[in-house]
Amino acid sequence: MKHKPRRFLRPADLLVTALLLLLAAALLLIPKKEASGADVIVDGETVLEIDFTTVREAYTVELENGIVISVSDRAVGFASSPCPNGLCVRTGMLTDAGDTAACVPLKTVIRVRGRSRADAVTG
Amino acid sequence: MRQITIRITAVLTVLSLALCGLFTGCAGRYYEGTSFAMGSVLTARLYTSDEKGTEIFGELSEAVADTDKMISATDSASELFRLNDAGFAKLSRRAIGLLKDSLTVCHILDGKTDVTIGAVSELWGFSTDSPSKPSEEALAGALKTVGTDNVSVYEEEKLVQLQEGTKLDLGAFGKGAAADSAYDILRSYDLSAVVTLGGTVLLYGRPVSGRTWKVAVRDPFGTENDTFGTLSLTPGENDDAVFVSTSGSYEKQFTENGMTYHHILSPETGMPVQTDLVSVTVVANAGLNCDALSTYCFINGFNDETLAKLAVFKAEALFVYKDGACRLTDGLKDSFRLTDTGHFRLADHEA
Hints:
The complex is a heterodimer.
Chain A: H1 11-29, E1 37-42, E2 45-51, E3 59-62, E4 68-72, E5 75-80, H2 87-90, E6 100-103, E7 108-112, E8 120-122
Antiparallel strand pairs in A: 1-2, 1-7, 3-4, 4-5, 6-7
Chain B: H1 2-25, E1 31-37, E2 40-46, H2 50-71, H3 79-86, E3 88-90, H4 93-108, H5 118-124, H6 136-143, E4 151-154, E5 159-162, H7 174-186, E6 193-197, E7 200-204, E8 213-218, E9 227-233, E10 241-248, E11 253-256, E12 259-262, E13 277-284, H8 287-300, H9 304-312, E14 316-321, E15 325-328, E16 336-338, E17 345-346
Parallel strand pairs in B: 15-17
Antiparallel strand pairs in B: 1-2, 2-6, 3-5, 4-5, 6-7, 7-10, 8-9, 9-16, 10-13, 11-12, 13-14, 14-15
């Protein structure tokens, strides 16, 4: 049986390649996913996991150490804290991936899940 | 037909691998740890497995806590507290080394950032819950105890003696020294890592998310999560790490009788330094130098003398003024990008 000489790429290959490239381009153009949730960590241990997608109404949660966390549709923050300086409350509500707020005296951190655009923040 | 299938499979495989690389390879797999040390949050993003990451983070936390136990000015169990209290103490080898390094930096910086400022900072009480402006008489008395000549280090005996009334305050060096201790841990592992302690950052190894590490600089007029620009950094030719430190008047301040006082004290006047600057960010290849230089630059301002001192340490700096103007040293001019051009602008770079 004789084989017909074949070109390296045939129309079918080109079509598949083009389709895949289009898919890749489309994936790149899709905007980065919004922050999906946040974690509350006390002394290195995650004590509260918040999933923004299931939040229907804003609510607050009181932690064992007396800190009150405020959660709304796409934001989370310290509502109140029994710590002496209240710096954590002044940080306000966090919305962006990678945002953090900390209450140092009570060793509590809120971190919005996901990667921020920068590797670190100085200041 | 079989050949086409093979070819399509090959094309698909190559492209899927490329896509996977694009979406997962860039981000890299990492372990992230959070704890508290030196009155700040310690975070480490370690590009390794969770198991290894947990182990290394444990070591990092311990190293930072050990540094704090040596130099904390408020913990009565720290080596420095004992020394300040008695005026004379036998210290650990590491504490002696750290003190000697700090004194050397103070000498190079002509005493404009000085570890012997302890008696002055104690009067202001910035590390307490109720800071207040001291009386002029008290301040004048405390200023007499400032000066590196008032410290004698007997290295062989590991003894340190302070002149009467002199107290040490390593506040301007502490987080940088802790970053150095974290660096010492990371050196024995083959990985990339980002460690932050408050505003001090250690970038270790090869950048993971691109060709350079990206460090955002906090907006001095905004909240903790507001930033106004980004530094793109890579370790120097012979280095495997970059350190970044920021000193800003917004960090600690209080208002009394209508006057606002910030915590960066001049060793010459004992008062919060009067300046048009609102923050200075320094990039260097060692943590202690980096931390001390950010305070020095804030105190001494942008001038030829400051630029010369930065050059001694092969360090670069970003100066931010109250009116939003930003000045960069030559080595950073191509590495800094303003992201908030509404409130900030790049000023001319003439001293």
